[in-house]
Amino acid sequence: MTRKVDPEMLPPKPHLKWEQTLWDMGIQKVAGIDEAGRGALAGPVAAAAVILPPKRRIARALGGVRDSKQMTAAQRESWAQTIQEVALAFGVGFASPEEIDTLGIIPATQLAAKRALSKLSANPEYLLIDYISLPDTTLPQTSFVKGDMRSLSIAAASVLAKTTRDALMVKLDDQYPSYGLAVHKGYGTVTHRSAISKLGPSPIHRLSFEPNRSYISELELSNVPT
Fold first, then answer.
1. Euclidean distance between the first and final Cα of the chain, in Å?
2. 164 Cβ contact partners less than 8 Å away, ≥ 6 residues apart
3. Disulfide check for 112: which of 11, 59, 95, 191 has CB 3.0–4.6 Å away?
4. Contact status, residue 181 vs residue 172, Cβ threshold 8 Å
5. What are the DSSP calls for 165-192, one per residue?
6. Ordered per-residue pLDDT tens for the chain, 226 residues
């Protein structure tokens, strides 16, 4: 099920309320799941799963972890290292641009999340997920709107998903240097859209997303014999 929340009622930082409730019920391995890159025009979508130790003190150890969008790149990198050091288990999965174009972005994000879960070194007993749900798993789960601002496990997953995907986009910039991927990480900035209009989409662009789709359509029309 999905728990909605009034934006004005969001806590100042993510907490362990939901995790603690489950821990008190004897459910010790709670995995937080979040994604990065869902709205990008290029590159894969990433998802991370993080199981935190069932201890209240973990909130102090990860006191600076927030929704990754609220952190600077340097903060994300620093806290990503700490998350990996203190987590009981973590994993990151991807779905490729081709899978996004074939399946659609939500099913591809779900696929990336399932791949992240498969990389965990411990089997989760319950899932706390930001926004999406995972219908193809038998694990009990709760989906949250703005989950990365409410659950520390989900926030930790958002940081790992973001930093891992950003690192990949920097590497892809070496292969496709004309698009500025290392700077905008594949999102639809003015610079990125301008590069697409001049060069067309690369092999790592999502052809089902605009403006990539329009560029391909116009190219196909221009090649139609008159």
1. 54
2. 36, 46, 48, 92
3. 95
4. yes
5. HHHHHHHHHHHSTTS-HHHHTT---HHH
6. 445 566 667 899 999 999 999 999 999 999 999 999 999 999 999 999 999 999 999 999 999 999 999 999 999 999 999 999 999 999 999 999 999 999 999 999 999 999 999 999 999 999 999 999 999 999 999 999 999 999 999 999 999 999 999 999 999 999 999 999 999 999 999 999 999 999 999 999 999 999 999 999 988 766 645 4
CATH of the domain at 153: 3.30.420.10
Range(s) of the domain holding residue 160? 2-222
Burial class (CB in 10 A: 0-12, 13-18, 19+), 101: middle
Amino acid at 132: I
Query: pTM (2 decimals)?
Result: 0.93
Domains identified in the chain, total number: 1
Do the beta carbons of residue 130 and residue 113 sit within 8 Å? Answer: no
Measured in whole angstroms, the distance separating CA 52 from the mean position of its chain's CA atoms is: 18
For residues 134 and 141, the answer to whether their CB atoms sit within 8 Å is yes
Dist CA 139 CA 67 (whole Å): 24
Residue with tokens 């490729």: 96
